[in-house]
Amino acid sequence: MRKFLNAAALILAGLVWATVSPRPIAAQAAAQSSQQPTYTMQEYNSFQACQAEKDPDAKMNCLDGYMTKYPNSTLIKYIGPAYVGVCNGLAQGKEYAKAIACADRVLGLGDKMDVTVQLQAIQLRIQSFSASFTGNPPDAAAQLTKERDAAALAVQLLPKLPKPANVTDDQFDQQKKAIAAFFNSAIAAADFQMKDYPGAITAYKVVLANTPNDALASYRLGLAYMALNPPQPLDGMWAVARAIDLKIEDADKVKDYLRKTMINYEQPTCDSLIDGQLNEMLQLAANSPDRPATYTIPAAADLLKIAQASTIVTVIQDLSGGGDKAKMTWLAICGAEFPEVVGKIIDVQKTDTTVDFMVYFGATQQDVEAATTANMDAKVWIAPNPAGGDVPPQPDVVRLEKDDPIRFSGTLTTYDPSPFMLHWDKVKVDPTIIPEKGKAPAHRK
Length: 445
Prior knowledge:
Blueprint: H1 5-19, H2 24-34, H3 41-52, H4 56-69, H5 76-92, H6 96-108, H7 115-132, H8 140-157, H9 169-193, H10 197-210, H11 215-227, H12 233-245, H13 251-266, H14 273-285, H15 300-309, H16 312-321, H17 323-333, E1 337-350, E2 354-360, H18 365-370, E3 376-381, E4 405-417, E5 420-429
Parallel strand pairs: 3-5
Antiparallel strand pairs: 1-2, 1-4, 2-3, 4-5
């Protein structure tokens, strides 16, 4: 909310002083030269006495007294800026509670104060509230409600703001957009703290409609979406991604938060897959403030359903088919452990520490017998793995040869889409499939 504060304050101040002169003595002189004054000398002297008062409390009481004694005075239009001057002095002196009370005093005078004066009083109130409201005081709800209501009043008053003579219509429209964003930011902040997330979302959308490049508002909008009950995580993550694209402060930290949020939402077995999704979301959100209805990422329940229904047969079919089906399947089963995988050895590549079996798996016996190329890569350690691990070496697997059957358990780590190849880690070959030492290998089906 403070992001808009200085710009909005300057705009409001300029509009107030451009439309309301603080020097009634000039009007008095003009009236004496051409016509009778519209106020008495007693009214004028009373106003000047208030203007000369230095103590804020005394000046406020003086202005209150003037309003009571001269409720219909033509000088009342100068009282408003005088009140605002007191409120501003209190805010500048960091006497925020008094500044808020001062602004509420001005607003309590209602239509007796010009629209410009009321708007500037509300601006000072928001400034003071933002600087002073911390923690969770007992009357937090009451304070936040008053803050929101004051900002909502400003939104209602803004269309009535008169245009100064020294600005064009286009300049004035742009100024009002900045002011509207400021006041709606205050509404959104109050609603968010009161956990009125639908209200906060509505207000933040207005902020972004007026100031589309406001990264902080987009980030806060994302948090509000995710705090809904039930939450709207896709819209929330999209808004946060948009904030990163708009170069929000601490963008790296926000990006890390978004990545963790995506992991928590999907709970994939391979966290590394989230990076591709994250980059895709950032690219798309850069060109679209709102998430397209066609864009989605799977939730944890979706991936769990796919994983529970998957077999090695369906995995190979889905992954080799490509497209969205392959993406979803890989998210669901990457890093998954398969207790029993069978196939025919197409090739054997040996080193001093490993044996790499190039294996073909097919859905039918005829398919397996006819295969000449591999679609799986299963590396088995025959010496201790220098990196450690919980799978002991199996030196006996060196007795397995080309065209032998193989049965193993393992973890899927990666796959190549073309030419298709599944890569396995933590492979453990079923000992019963390994030929006995000293016996000639028998090529079994």
